[in-house]
Design a protein that fits this description.
The complex is a heterodimer. By secondary structure, chain A is mostly helical. Chain A has a domain of about 45 residues. The relative contact order of chain A is 0.12. Chain B is α/β, with parallel strands linked by helices. Chain B contains five helices and ten strands; from the N terminus they run βββαβαββαβαββαβ. The longest helix of chain B has 14 residues. The two termini of chain B are about 25 Å apart. The chains are: A mainly alpha, B alpha/beta. At the A-B interface, helix 3 of A face strand 3, helix 1, helix 3, strand 7 and helix 4 of B.
Amino acid sequence: MRVKVTAPECSRIPAEYLAAERERLRHDPPTFDQEYMCSFVATDPTAVFPADALQRAFEHRGESISWPVRESDSG
Amino acid sequence: MADGNFVIAVDLGMQVDPTACAVVERQIEIVERGFDEPEYRDHFVVRALRRWALQTSYDDVVADVAGLVRARGLQDAVIALDLTGPGRLAGRVFIEAYLEGKLGTRYPWAYTITGAQTPSSGGHVAKRDLVTNALVQFNRGRVHIPPDIPYAAVLRDELAGYSRRVTASGVSIFENGSRDAPHDDLVFALMLALYVKTGLPESCRVFTPV
């Protein structure tokens, strides 16, 4: 039998504490997940690009450039 | 014509590796330093990504890139080609298109990625230098990728799976070990775009965090 209880599901851990921890680790979500969410997705030690750096890079909300449809594609 | 400093980096594939492209705009953050000269910090904003189906002809790839240049006003963009896989002759289709006036104002720049231990020189770029430059930019928070643009999720999987192992003789081997993203073509297109920094800061738009 397997039992999984995450920190938010434990009544003895205040929600305020978890919110503060989430804020403290906002640039390192995998560590928060590892410490409090039973999610062990720790960074692969062989990975070239650190997970937190990737997380930060993909937070951008800037404009994009769309590829035009080629005339031969549009039929 | 679009304002800004753009690189269109194309990693040309062959039978087993798709061709991929990253369109990256270099922007400048100006950090005031009192009475000293301000510091100019490069930022690299990914504006478009694309991966073509396996065995798409180079002529079709060129036609798509030419269409992008024409339709989006990217005539002054640098077109950087990674010819490592197919060899330098594959760049001819781009050069022919340039000579026909289809690829903007700049002669395409051709690169070959060499072994990690070989020094970079001209159009030959050591893989180690390419990777290290990209890593520095990521660690400094200078690379910005909108997560909702096409192929962003694929690129993220490729980046997360891109790994380095060291052989018993001390040689670094870079490879993509992810089963979810077995290719690394988008990573290479992006890394080349980050490597090919060109132009003066004045040619760049000011970076605005969003």
